[in-house]
Amino acid sequence: MNQDLNTALEQPSVATEPIITPNTQPELPDKWLKNYLPMGVGQILSMLGSGLVHFALIWFITKETGSAITLLMATITGVLPRVILGPFAGALVDRWNRKLTMIISDGVIALATLLLAILFAIGKIQIWHVYAILFIRSVGAIFQGPAMSASITLMVPREHYTRLAGVSHAVDGIITIVSPPLGALLMSLLPIQAVIAVDIVTAAMAILLLFTVKIPQPPQQKSEKVATSIKTVLTDVKDGFAYVISWRGIFAAMIGGTLINMAATPSFSLLPLHVDQFFQKGSDGLAFLYSALGVGSILGGLALSVWGGFKRKILTIAMGIFSMGLCMLAFGFLPAQGYTVAIFLIAFFGIANVFANGPLSALFQDKIPSELQGRVFTVMGSLVQATVPIGLLIAAPIAEWLGISAWFIIGGIACVVLAIVMLLYKPMVTLDWQGPGGEIMPEYQDRV
């Protein structure tokens, strides 16, 4: 898994100084929780609307085509903007006003969704229209997501990062529980354009709530006016790549995540088709599985928010990834009559996913300087997602040949192997003890 690319840093980059600067948190707004809540509530509403759109479109494609290739193409359409544009979006987020970035991004997503609803309403919808709108929504998300993630470290005390991540995953779970059955119910009562239009309303509410929030800018942006040009953006992207590559532990974790995404993403992208053709269930059957995932996310999020995980976050992460692998392996070996067991396995997967991702995001937020987080987060996201289209393109013909279950088994094996490697590979297992750049902090030298 490890690829030693330190030679790429033989020439110093513009970001060399921030890389070795501790991540000191700026002064927080007064009554930080009261300030943060409107943004959090707005994003919950937006996520609910997006969940309804996702469910409606995925089931529409599943029933219209019944093709694994067509379904996976929808996933590829959503992934490509993150791979190609992600690093540039992150560099711009670090330079732009993050509050305004979130408002504009949410607005673009809402307008794209409105266009999709109109196409359904006038009966002119085609599959390529769905792909195009998914692409635009993904472009908006690659600005909105990093802007919000990078804002959290400027709005929330660092000692609450892990617990906030747990609460966030619990909320994600609630949305995952509510949106599929609500989507299935609404689709049985209303035309699909009406279901999709709910997302426009929730996006508008999220935008209005953002206007009430005070989001500080990083100290570097507050102390000087930062110019934006093609050259400076490209420099920032280069610095983001250099930062990730130079930190061996984070780079190795990112490579592991890349392999897991390549192996596991096709399985969950094909889950609607698996439910329809393997388990012989309808949209309600898919909704129950999604809701089970949400129940697991809630339980895992609540447990993580109360417990906080092991003192060393990397141990909680490894435990979560290992458990995810076991759930996927078991799911892959289920017979067609095992739908009920599948519900419980998906729920356990949701719990494990929170234990893997919650502490990981908290670890990155704590270690990476706030003025670099936008570009670093999006560079990492782009690199992790880069092989997903390859995995999806390989999965499509093989899934139609061997069955979708095979890809759950492959993803499960990848998770188990990564968890073991994380505990054996020194740059990864010591991440909690590392300072910015990957050096072991003096107070932990005797534990290495």
Describe the overall structure:
The protein has helices at 16-19, 32-65, 68-95, 98-121, 127-152, 161-189, 192-210, 219-223, 230-246, 248-269, 271-277, 283-307, 313-332, 339-367, 373-385, 388-402, 405-424, 426-429. Helix 3 runs antiparallel to helix 15 (373-385), helix 4 packs antiparallel against helix 5 (127-152) and helix 6 packs across helix 14. It is built from 18 helices and no strands. The protein has one domain (28-447): MFS general substrate transporter like domains (Growth Hormone, Chain: A, Up-down Bundle), CATH 1.20.1250.20. The protein has 448 residues and is an all-alpha fold. The model is unreliable at 1-24 and 221-226 (pLDDT under 50). The radius of gyration is 21 Å and the shape is globular.
Portion in beta strands: under 5%
- Let me know the number of strands: 0
CATH class: Mainly Alpha
Radius of gyration: 21 Å
CATH topology: Growth Hormone, Chain: A
CATH superfamily: MFS general substrate transporter like domains
- The average pLDDT score comes to 78
Form type: globular
Q: How many separate structural domains? A: 1
Order of helices and strands: HHHHHHHHHHHHHHHHHH
Using the 3D structure, state the CATH architecture: Up-down Bundle
Question: How many angstroms separate the termini?
Answer: 21 Å
Q: What's the story with the biggest beta sheet? A: none
Number of helices: 18
Parts with pLDDT < 50 across at least 5 consecutive residues: 1-24, 221-226
By secondary-structure content and strand pairing, the structural class works out as mainly alpha
